[in-house]
Design a protein that fits this description.
This protein is mostly helical. About 70% of the residues lie in helices and about 5% in strands. A hairpin with a 2-residue loop joins strand 2 and strand 3.
């Protein structure tokens, strides 16, 4: 499904944000229709222990996340596809002029992103022993906040998986500090909005 989005964006030159919103709406509608809006619970005899293991105080989810970051960084920095992806992100027209198959690169990028999202969905479903549309509510904004705080360019062509990891650490640290100080949910969202806006302003200024 993600690869199909990439194909529409890459080959038909459709707006990425509009396509993503449309795909989210379609998926949400289809899943809601199929499930009736209810969550799907794991069977009583389902063995989810391999996906919920703990190594001391650290859950296996942390290791899966770090492995995903490492794999993503290798793809970006050590492969021809990664170099092409940076160039397409910087200037799609220049990429076309140099002979790069922009549509194929976009399709591949979305396919890989979809695979990582699938892994995250599986880990979340295993953790809660249920699959529900409510599980990832609000994660889209957190994802934007993380890449912005990590210094990844919203215009494309700049950033790395390690920067995303840094952004995740920053966001997690800020949220933890706010919670420990008794900040309300509203205060946390306001603070996050201010930080994201500030990071975007710094990003734009750096580009100039």
């Amino acid at each position: 499904i993600s690869a199909l989005q990439g194909w529409v964006i890459g080959y038909l030159r459709a707006n990425a944000i509009v396509v993503s919103i449309a795909a989210l709406s379609l998926l949400t509608g289809i899943v809601t229709q199929v499930t009736g809006g209810a969550g799907i619970f794991a069977a009583a005899n389902a063995d989810l222990s391999p996906l919920k293991m703990e190594f001391g105080p650290v859950n296996i989810t942390v290791f899966v996340f770090l492995a995903a970051v490492f794999i993503a960084q290798v793809i970006l920095s050590r492969t021809t596809f990664g170099y092409a992806l940076y160039l397409v992100g910087s200037n799609p027209r220049a990429s076309d002029a140099t002979g790069i198959r922009t549509g194929a690169v976009m399709t591949g990028a979305y396919a890989i992103a979809g695979a990582f999202c699938e892994i995250a969905g599986i880990m979340a479903a295993a953790r809660f022993a249920t699959a529900s549309l409510e599980t990832g509510f609000g994660y889209d904004y957190d994802a934007i906040a993380i890449i912005t705080l990590g210094g990844v360019s919203m215009h494309g062509g700049h950033g790395s998986a390690f920067h995303v990891l840094l952004g995740a650490i920053i966001l997690s640290t800020i949220n933890t500090i706010l919670v420990l100080n008794g900040a309300s949910q509203g205060t946390q969202r306001v603070m996050l909005g201010v930080l994201v806006l500030g990071a975007i302003c710094l990003n734009v200024r750096a580009r100039r």
